[in-house]
Specification:
The protein has 9 helices and 13 strands. By secondary structure, it is of the alpha/beta class. The chain is globular. It holds the Pfam family Methyltransf_31.
């Protein structure tokens, strides 16, 4: 059996018998006026963060969500789009599609604004999406892509890139891990399927995105997620796993490389009203300007004593250079 099949089996079981401790975090879930999330959806929250951000959802976007789970985030997306088939949900596990379909019926009873028809569920694989090229404004996945091994991750990202319109965005939430994991952990198909042993260091995760062509990357959140300890897992050292929320935008790749926003800001504190680096960045006196890592490095290279560059907060929420 391949690890992809093991993964499907794990989620078949998780669809038939909801498993509250699987994947999800105890982070508070979105509370929005008039939005009631059925208990069963909360119990089937198999994600590790949020991919739903109102900032991505203006102008009536066509939304794709891959790996539906219990349907909670699709309901949250539908809260913003509120039209028939506004959100496409794709999953490769029949039982998960069936469970989410049932959960949407429950959501209808609890939310008078919601109709199951707002979500179009499709059987399909993240590695071969049943979705047309250039047809999606916002694509999302939560806690699925970290399971994929290198070549499959590449395929899954290429598929997302293919279906997105120019300037469309892929919003993702996944575990990440800066420590090396041993082969026993890496090759344990069940731990991988449970989102515990497939995660990459953040830099590699970002590189996988820029390698398929996404020109802009936003690191929106980075939080503690899990510990793999020697008593419970096949490891000699304690391994700390985080979860990250990342958006990858299908902007053209700049000639000098991708713009990766990790939450850095530059502040000019010289004597003039502003500083213009003549490369498209104007820093107003004592006003922070969010900068991508590339611009932060270029400003640092100026070796001036009147520009402060902050560390990455890993909490970029829009605006700034590029
Ligand atoms: C960890 S769960 C995450 C569910 C949901 N995103 C959430 O946040 O609750 C992974 C989901 O991906 C689905 N899945 C597993 N392998 C898949 C594949 N190759 N293609 C599409 N979906 C897949 C599973 O059935 C499950 O719904």
């Amino acid at each position: 059996m391949s690890y992809l099949e093991t993964t499907r089996n794990v989620y078949r079981d998780a669809a038939l018998t909801p498993d509250v401790g699987l994947c999800c975090t105890t982070n508070p879930i979105w509370e929005l006026p008039g939005l009631k999330i059925p208990k069963i959806m909360q119990e089937m929250n198999y994600g590790c963060g949020s991919t739903v951000n109102p900032r991505d959802l203006s102008n009536n976007p066509k939304i794709l969500y891959v790996g539906v789970g219990g349907g909670m985030e699709l309901l949250q997306f539908a809260y913003f789009s509120r039209k028939n088939d506004g959100v496409i949900g794709v999953d490769s596990v029949d039982e998960m599609l069936e469970a989410s379909r049932k959960n949407f019926k429950e959501a209808e009873l609890q939310n008078n604004w919601f109709k199951s028809d707002f979500v179009e569920l499709k059987k399909g694989d993240a590695l071969d999406l049943p979705v047309a090229d250039n047809s999606i404004d916002v694509a999302a996945q939560n806690c699925l892509f970290n399971i994929f091994k290198t070549e499959d991750l590449k395929k899954a990202l290429e598929e997302m890139y293919r279906v997105l319109k120019p300037h469309g965005r892929l919003v993702m939430s996944d575990p990440s891990c800066e420590q090396p994991m041993n082969d026993e952990l890496r090759n344990d198909e069940r731990l991988r399927a449970l989102c515990l042993s497939g995660s990459l260091p953040l830099k590699e995760y970002i590189k996988a995105l820029t390698d398929v062509g996404f020109g802009t990357i936003e690191i929106r959140a980075r939080k503690p997620y899990r510990i793999l300890d020697p008593k419970h897992y096949p490891t000699e050292e304690l391994i700390y796993i985080e979860s990250v929320e990342v958006a990858a935008i299908k902007d053209p790749m700049p000639e000098d490389g991708p713009c990766v926003f990790t939450g850095k800001a530059a502040i000019y504190y010289g004597d003039e009203d502003y500083l213009d680096d003549k490369k498209g960045h104007v820093l107003l006196q004592n006003q922070p300007l969010a900068v991508c890592d590339k611009t932060a490095a270029a400003l640092a290279d100026l070796n001036r004593n009147d520009i402060f560059i902050s560390e990455s907060t890993f909490h970029y929420d829009g605006g700034g250079c590029c």
